[in-house]
Amino acid sequence: MPIGQRLAFDAAMGRLWVVCRACERWNLTPFDTRWEAIEQAERAFRDTRVRVSTEQIGLARLRDGTELVRVGKPLRPEFAAWRYGDQFGRRRRRTLLMGAGAALGGGVVLAGATAFGAGLATLLPVVHVLNLSTILRAITARGSEHRLPDGGRFVPIGQPRLIASGPEGWGIDIGYAMRRAAGDTRGPAMFSLFGEGKNEQGRIQLYGHDALPLLREYLPRINRTGASAARVVDAVTLLEQAGAADAFPRWAASMRRTWDAKATWGDAGDLNYIPAPARLAFEMALHEEAERRALEGELAELERAWADAEGIAAIADSLTIPPTIDVRLEQLRQRPE
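Structure (tokenized):
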């Protein structure tokens, strides 16, 4: 593999991932290089003596520094701990460090203000302004341009809300700051406070598969604070309750009323306010669903290639067979037994 210092592979399922050490995300590799690499990884894993393993997952480090994660048939919690633990754990550590830095900075400011005779009451307006700016930033947060099912484009604004409607039983409702109809040949939809689109606003509903690109952009932001190992296990438990990764969004939409009843603040339909394990499970489900679709796409591509090859072979064979032979074969097929 030309990239990646950690590779994870599942020989039984035919999957090979490159693990990004910057974001800890597991990225499924291209299909044309995967099978040979899996065989090489299996041989390298068996040949190395430096390895740590549980019953179903093993970690080996090669001499060149490459790390191999061998996946057998683990239970979902064990696999999730390997696959998502580092990713959410890194976000959590970064959040804790940033929080500690902010607290230290705030302490320095408070100490300095006290030294100059300013009391805590003097600083309260500053705290209120900071809180207000945080709320406004969440409300007016804009995403990148996305496509609509009809071919149009829009720029989302605000936070996505989970809705229990649509052909697949779930969808996302979100505001937009800029929208263009299908066939609009102008450049990207760019929202501006003073230029084109400054007065545009409204809401858009995306259902099922059409909502996935938007969620792939927003969920890492929503889960930016990461999670502990115990919280990851809780998220996996919710995935198991839903039954499968592709069923989780519909299951989550059906749980909105239950979560609403238990919520002490916020709108439980807003993805920022659904239970934290559910937010993590949503992001996990998107990753696993994307891989499932990719694998299905590979099989469909193989089927198309096989059909093309079969058609060409049939034509090639027929060029060397006299027509009388085809007539006689058809008579024999229709003869009663």
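The mean pLDDT is 76. The longest strand covers residues 153-163.
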